[in-house]
């Protein structure tokens, strides 16, 4: 019983299949999370990890309601600690599986997983499946005998396994010599064996099979590309069309595929593919969601680029965007809008969410990631999104991008009043950091004048900044009064996070004035609100 089981091997060696088979043999609770590129941000990742664990630890649903109000950058410190405390009360064994971990690159996520592993309760276990070794403290776990490793050589088929797979699973009547040849050519790579078997199933006689086997040369990726091409070319035109045109999707469901293809038979075709063991992997027990084999998906997308004009590919992405938008799956909708070349659709979908990202704040990394993919001209058409991108990059210390967004805002011909006030607020903050307090104070006064009276987001931001500046300039009484005003306004308009942060500032300033009882009372009020 190791803390971490690491299954590390290139694509096509059966990592997910192995884990799915192992899962069927387990008698204790298992939570499985299949990761993709969109999960590479702390908020989304830890939410999904928590949701996966909640399927086997129901108490987590209630316990985790307030976990994700912290900024993105702190989630990988706070959530692992909270999970550890929650899991410590579990009485039975529990395993968490993180599949396709290689899609993650955010350092704070890896740091959070390291912390989780260091403090994991003894009845719990983590399983990671990845194409490459994750940047975790593997040597430390190995030295403590807390790491179990399953690697390429462990997953590689031996001769007897290759023979059994080809004869029993693929139904091929091959003699020993042919199996030895295939085993040598594929070196036990199950993806190559599978696609070889699918090609051989279509051949008419033993001589044709032997000729095909003898043609296989090389022991690298191009063998599988060749084999997959053979398999694809042998499918019916209707099935080929389905495979190619749905390859733009990371995950497939019948309603989604029907929307993308403007058809009504996707459920039948997906079932056909699964029954024939062709290319698809079921992602849930209900057979609602699937994905293509990773290697095959790459081949399909390359073929799609070669055979389908850009305008037609863009239309496929547009249909996917519309379907995901209608389902409220905004990240996937934005991704397809961008892939389809419709940056304005992506910006229009993101813009209404920017205040939520800015003030909760739950989405700085998300806003930053998407905004970085938008052209300057498009961003200037959506100034609220442009400002959110500036804030996101300021908070994550990306100086080059901060300069880009600041220039775009300062050169904008007609900023809305709320964005103009927020820009002044940010400029004042930069002046304050440079100790140009007098200039910063005047700019904040201008911002307070420019801010719309009914825009509480802007009012809170500017007044909070002014209060902090007043304290730094020694105007303690005015600063205290303004912080109280911000706390009261935040509570009145239900901006809990802003109220808590401002209350924290105020308590620190009260302690600095020796008003300890007032500071203690305020902190207790803030704690009570945070726990509600």
What this model shows, in words?
The protein has 532 residues and is an alpha/beta fold. The chain folds into four domains: 4-154, P-loop containing nucleotide triphosphate hydrolases (Rossmann fold, 3-Layer(aba) Sandwich); 159-233; 237-341, Arc Repressor Mutant, subunit A, CATH 1.10.10; 350-531, Serine Threonine Protein Phosphatase 5, Tetratricopeptide repeat, CATH 1.25.40. It contains 30 helices and seven strands. Strands 2-3-4-1-5 form a five-stranded parallel beta sheet, with helices on both faces. A two-stranded antiparallel sheet has the order 6-7. α4 (72-88) runs parallel beside α5, α8 (159-169) packs across α9 and α28 runs antiparallel to α29.
* Biggest β-sheet strands, sense, barrel: 5 strands, parallel
- Provide the CATH top-level class of the largest domain: Mainly Alpha
Strand order of the largest sheet: 2-3-4-1-5
Q: How large is the radius of gyration?
A: 28 Å
What separation lies between the terminal Cα atoms?
Answer: 39 Å
Weakly predicted, low-confidence segments: 357-362
Overall structural class, as computed from helix and strand content, comes to alpha/beta
Oligomeric state of the chains?
A: single chain
Q: Which CATH architecture of the largest domain is right?
A: Alpha Horseshoe
CATH H-level name of the largest domain... which superfamily?
Tetratricopeptide repeat domain
The total strand number stands at 7
Question: How many helices does DSSP assign?
Answer: 30
- Whole-number mean pLDDT: 87
């Amino acid at each position: 019983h190791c803390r971490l089981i690491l299954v590390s091997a290139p694509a096509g060696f059966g990592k997910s299949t192995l884990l799915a088979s192992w899962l069927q043999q387990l008698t204790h609770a298992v939570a499985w999370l299949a990761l993709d590129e969109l999960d590479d941000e702390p908020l989304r990742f830890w939410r999904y990890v928590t949701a996966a664990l909640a399927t086997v630890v129901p108490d987590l649903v209630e316990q985790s309601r307030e976990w994700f109000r912290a900024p993105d950058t702190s989630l990988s410190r706070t959530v692992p600690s909270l999970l550890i405390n929650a899991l410590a009360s579990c009485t039975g064994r529990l395993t968490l599986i993180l599949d396709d971990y290689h899609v993650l690159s955010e350092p704070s996520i890896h740091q959070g997983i390291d912390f989780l592993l260091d403090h994991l309760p003894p009845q719990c276990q983590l399983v990671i499946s990845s194409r490459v070794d994750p940047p975790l403290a593997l040597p430390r776990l190995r030295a403590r005998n807390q790491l179990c490793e399953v690697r390429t050589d462990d997953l590689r088929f031996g001769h007897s396994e290759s023979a059994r797979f080809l004869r029993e699973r693929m139904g091929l009547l091959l003699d020993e010599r042919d199996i030895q040849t295939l085993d040598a050519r594929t070196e036990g790579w199950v993806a190559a064996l599978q696609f070889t078997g699918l090609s051989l199933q279509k051949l008419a006689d033993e001589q044709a099979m032997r000729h095909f086997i003898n043609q296989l040369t090389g022991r690298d990726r191009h063998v599988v590309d060749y084999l997959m091409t053979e398999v694809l070319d042998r499918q019916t035109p209707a099935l080929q069309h389905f495979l190619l045109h749905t390859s733009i999707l990371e995950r497939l469901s019948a309603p989604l595929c029907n929307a993308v293809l403007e058809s009504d038979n996707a459920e039948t075709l997906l079932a056909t593919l699964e029954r024939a063991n062709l290319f698809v992997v079921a992602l849930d027990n209900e057979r609602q969601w699937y994905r293509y084999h990773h290697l095959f998906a790459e081949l399909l997308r390359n073929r799609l680029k070669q055979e389908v004009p850009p305008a037609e590919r863009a239309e496929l992405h547009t249909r996917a965007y519309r379907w995901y938008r209608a389902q409220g799956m905004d990240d996937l909708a934005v991704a397809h809008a961008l892939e389809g070349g419709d940056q304005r659709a992506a910006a229009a979908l993101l813009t209404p969410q920017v205040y939520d990202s800015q003030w909760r704040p739950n989405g700085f990394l998300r806003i930053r990631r998407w905004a970085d993919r938008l052209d300057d001209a498009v961003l200037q058409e959506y100034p609220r999104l442009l400002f959110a991108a500036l804030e996101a990059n300021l908070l994550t210390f990306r100086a080059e991008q901060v300069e880009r967004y600041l220039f775009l805002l300062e050169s904008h011909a007609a900023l809305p009043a709320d964005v103009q006030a927020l820009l002044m607020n940010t400029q004042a903050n930069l002046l304050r950091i440079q100790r140009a307090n007098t200039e910063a104070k005047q700019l904040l006064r201008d911002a307070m004048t420019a801010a719309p009276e009914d825009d509480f987001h802007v009012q809170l931001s500017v007044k909070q900044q002014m209060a902090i500046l007043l304290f730094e300039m020694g105007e303690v009484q005015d600063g205290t009064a303004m912080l109280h005003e911000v706390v009261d306004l935040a509570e009145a308009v239900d901006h809990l996070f802003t109220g808590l942060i401002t209350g924290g500032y105020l308590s620190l300033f009260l302690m600095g004035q020796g008003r300890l009882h007032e500071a203690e009372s305020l902190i207790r009020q803030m704690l009570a609100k945070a726990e509600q």
